[in-house]
Amino acid sequence: MSPILIAGTIIVSLALLFYSVGIITEQRRHRITSPVLFFLTVGVVLDITATVCMIIGSTQSPFSLHGILGYSSLAGMTAVTVMAWSQRRRKGDIEVPRGLHLSSRLAYVWWVLTYVASALLVMWRP
What would you measure as the largest C-alpha separation in the chain, in angstroms? Predict the structure, then answer.
């Protein structure tokens, strides 16, 4: 495996860590706090960085099943992060609206499933 793909793999694992802390904290406290925004934002930045590394380092098409899964999960987590920032800026520190609370959970579950599925796709690639 090329060094850039190894870097991408490490970075996407760090994104998983940051997303996990951010989403689990939001789900438990039902609030969008500064730490939640920090962890979600860093998770998105790391995920984008990992995606770029994987595109550069891969010999496969960026529009493979692996790529499409990754882009869709990145889009979901980016949307949740933008909604969280928007909610916090407009209304401050209030309880997370039910729709955002559910959306963040669904986006996170999709991201984790994509993370696992992508790892399996790479392992099974000839």
Answer: 51
Burial class (CB in 10 A: 0-12, 13-18, 19+), 98: exposed
Looking at residue 97, the DSSP 8-state letter turns out to be: P
Rounded CA-CA distance 56/94 in Å is 41
Residue pLDDT, tens place only, 28-81: 999 999 999 999 999 999 999 999 999 999 887 878 888 899 999 999 999 999
Number of domains in the chain: 1
Range of the domain at 112: 3-124
- Name the pTM for this structure: 0.92
Secondary structure class of 61 (helix, strand, coil): coil
Q: How far apart are CA 14 and CA 23, in angstroms?
A: 14
The structure tokens listed for 78 are 């980016």
